Structures are given as C-alpha cells and as structure tokens.
Amino acid sequence: MTKPLPLLTRGDVDGFFGLALDNLVQLIVITSLCTVVLEFPPALLFGSVFPGVAVSLIIGNVFYAMQARRVARETGRTDVCALPYGINTPSLFLYIFLIMLPAKFHAINELNMSTSEAAAFAWRAGLLACLGSGLIECIGSFFIDHIRKFTPRCALLSTLAGIALGFIAMPFLFEAFAYPIVALVPFLLFLVVYFGKVKFKGGIPGGFVAVVLGTVLAWISIAPEARAGLNFGQTPTGMGFYLPIPVIGDIIQGFSDPWMPGFFSVVLAMGLFNVLGSLQNIESAEAAGDTFKTQPSLLMNGLGTLGAGLFGSCFPTTIYIGHPGWKEMGARSGYSIMNAVFFTIICLTGTLSCITFLVPTAAVVGIVIWIGIVISAQSFQSTPRLHAPAVVVGLLPGIAAWGAHMAKSGLRASENMLRAAGEQNPDFFTPDLYGAFGILNIHISGAFAIEQGALFLAMILAAFTAAVLEQRFKAAASWCFVAGLLSLIGLMHSHRLTTGDAILSLEPAWEWAIAYACMGVFCLALPFISKPAKDESDDDESAGDD
C-alpha cells in the first residue's frame, strides 16, 4: 500500500517564507506605485486590484500544488516540489510605466478627465493589458516550440535584461541612495545573502532579516513628519473585506477609447516573454529532477493571468525562477497551498494597508534591485559566449526607453514647477522640444522612436546580431524584414507628441521601414559581394605553434 503524501512538511514552511516574501514585496511595490504614481484611490486598489490578485494567486498556486502531488503519486516519489508561482515582476513595472502611466496622462491632457477619472482610465488600460497578456500566454502554450525554434535565447533574455536594468533596478537604486540608512543597508544585505549564499542560524530567511532590519532602521531614523515620503507610518485606509467581483463592464468600457490599441506592442512582447520565461523555469525544474507536462503548465499560467484581469488586477502572473532552490530547501506542494491561503487573506481583507503602515517601500527595494540584477546577469550566463555582443545590443533599447521615460518625467516636473509658480497650462511637448534638446546634442526624437516598440526592437536587434555573429545572413535579413513590417504597420518607432507626452501613433513609420528593408536586401546580397569568412581557428593554432 502506497504511503499517503503529507500535506505539509518542514521544508514547505521554509519554502513558504521565501515565496511569500517574493510576492509580498511585489504587493508592497504595487501599493506604492499605484498610490503615488497612478494615484489610485484606496477603494480601487483594495476593492478591485488586490481581490483580482488573490484570484490569480489561488488559481495558479492550487493548480501547481495539485500537479506536484499528481506527479509524486505517478512516480512513487515524495520529493516532488511544486512550481513556484506569483506576480510577474517585469510586467508589473512595464505595465505601470509604459501603459497605465501614459494612459493617465492621456486621460488628463487629451480627454480632460479629473485625477480620479484618469486613475480609473489607467486601471482599465491595465486590465486590457493583463487580459491581452493572458490570452497570448494561453495561445502561446500551444505554439511555444515554434517560437523557441526561430528566436535565439539571447534575443529573449537581453530584451528583459534591458527592461530590468532600466525600469526595475535603476529607479529603486536612486531610492536606495536617497535613503541610505533605510534602503541601502538592506540592499547590500540582500547581496550578501543571495550572492554570498549566507544562511542565518535557526533557518531564518535572509530576505526576511533584510526587510526587518530596514523597517527597524526606518522607524528609528525617520522623523514622524517625514514618514509619508517613504510611504509608511500612515493610518491604514484599506481595512475591510472585499469579495472578488468580475469587472466585465469596466473591461468593455476600456475598449471604447481609440487610444487603447497603442499599447499592443508592449502587451504582445511581454506575453511572448512570459510564455518563454515560464518554459525556461519548467525546464529548470526538470533539470532539478521534477518533470511537469509543458502545455498544461503554461496554459494554467495564462489562465491565472486571465483570472487576474477579469477580477480587477492589472498584473500578469508567471511561473517563477528558483524551483531548484525551493526543492533543495525541502519544499514540496504544501508551500504553494500556504502561499495561496496567505495571500487570499492579505488581499481580501485589506491587511496589506497594515503591512505598508509598518514596512516602508524603501526597506524592500533592495530585493527589487536584486531581481533586476539577476535577470540581467542571466542574459549573459544562459547564452553562448559567442552571443555576448548580441546580448549587449539587446540591452540598448530597454535602457534607451528608460532614458526617454526619464526625459519625459523631467519635462513634466518642470511643467509642475511652472504651474506652482502661477503659469497657466505650460506644455513642453511641442515640436520646439526637438530643437531644445538638439542644442544639447541630445536627439530626443530618436529616444522617442526607440521607446515606441522598444521590446520588439530589442528582440529583433539581438536576434539580428546573433545571426550576423553566426554568419547566417538570410536569417539576419529575415529579422530586418520583420522590423520593417512592424514599422510599416505602426507598432515600432511611430510616435507623436501630445499634451504632456510622446506616444505611439500607430501610423506607418516610413523612414525606419525603408531603412530596415534596405538592410535586409543588403544582407541577402552579402554572400555574393563578400569574401568567405576566414577560419580564425587556423590563426589560433598557428599562434600556438609559435
């Protein structure tokens, strides 16, 4: 008779603390960015967004726990560890800064909405983005092998790395050095714990120690009147009980604005990356000894994201990296169920408002910076050495897009200062902007062109470079023609200035389309107009003989 599988092990408790800390940090960051950047009212954040998060985390965590138990029964093993699952970190930042924040400015400047109306408009844009990502993840689960076959790994990883450096790591690095006692100390401790593999006595998770230390330092060193700037120590405003309610009406309303299709390039790219990233994590689990069926695992990941969007969350979910670590820790299936239960309570009761009362955002930014570092390092570690230049090329558009975002933020800050000084409706986003930046030798129009479709551009440039490095010029030409097509239909480079922003215009970007087409033709002609490549190994051998 087969011995029944335990519902919970000691390793599950350890794994739960690690996985819960990851997801809790995401929720604290979401609270901060949605409150400060997007200006979501508490009723929207705690009444719609977090219940949607709860639904998505329940769907995935319960499925992956049951999946692990099924594999354990089928194989007769007791050491099968469930796939870790939670909110997708890159999508979180990209959807806020590249979709919801531009939507907010569009609502205020173009549609003359109030701040509260603009927040709701931005939320609906986020809902559509989340649902779009979920659909792409579900569909992509059936075609993932074809996507992997034609897209080199360096193109995928470097694209995410550029975003990770710009939109994930850099803003919080600024915050860490703005508040060195509260944020820099925990950040450095995260590096010690995770890169130095330091373990504390008693099995206390190192990330937990870093967050507690940052919190204690904040309460000791920050004066009461200054705590609002660090988003802690304020009276909790979200306590209550919130049932998940489908937001079908808001989703339908979101489709009514013609501006909404402008973010499709971000959603499509992130949906594909989520599928491929999850696949890599499934492969990582298989390398650690736990084999799960690929298609249902990826499909459930997409269904979790769809559940998030249907019930009010703007943030896709994903299978996390790190399965081998949880498995080595002794986690099995119980840690996933514990994660689902814990965040159901947190998200449906407004308890997160109490957590953010105690824990300042600055105390947890270190782990977010660390995530950005890990994503970036992986783009080099997990690709062939030959493709290192392609990885660097793939980093550039994401960093450039962040630079464009910073430039626009600076312009908006200047506009706000002028309004405070009494000037009526200042607007720097006019054609004169190009000349003003040009005097400083900054080609801001190029930055805006890169920003629109930056994810596609990064993937294409990295794949093109990888093909060139391997001297596969037909493949290089194909990527040029793909870039030209995307430019021609307006999903890359096409941009226009509006009041307070520069946004995707969805009009043909002829100059870029022509440039890519020319390069594609040139690549096709290269075998006929160039000499065969010299085998450098001969030179290496002769050098060795000397």
**Strand segment tally:** 4
Strand content: under 5%
Beginning-to-end CA distance, first to last residue: 70 Å
Major beta-sheet overview: 2 strands, antiparallel
Number of helices: 21
Indicate the structural class.
Answer: mainly alpha
Low-confidence segments, ≥5 residues, pLDDT <50? Answer: 536-546
Write a structural description.
This protein is mainly alpha-helical and 546 residues long. It has two domains: 10-383, no CATH class; 400-527, no CATH class. It is 71% helix and 3% strand. The protein is built from 21 helices and four strands. The protein has helices spanning 10-36, 42-75, 89-109, 115-150, 153-178, 180-194, 206-221, 248-254, 264-287, 294-310, 323-329, 334-349, 351-358, 361-381, 388-420, 432-439, 444-451, 454-469, 473-488, 510-529, 536-545; strands at 85-87, 317-319, 495-498, 501-504. It has a two-stranded antiparallel ribbon. The protein has a two-stranded antiparallel ribbon with strand order 3-4. A hairpin with a 2-residue loop joins strand 3 and strand 4 (501-504). Helix 5 packs across helix 15 (388-420) and helix 19 packs antiparallel against helix 20.
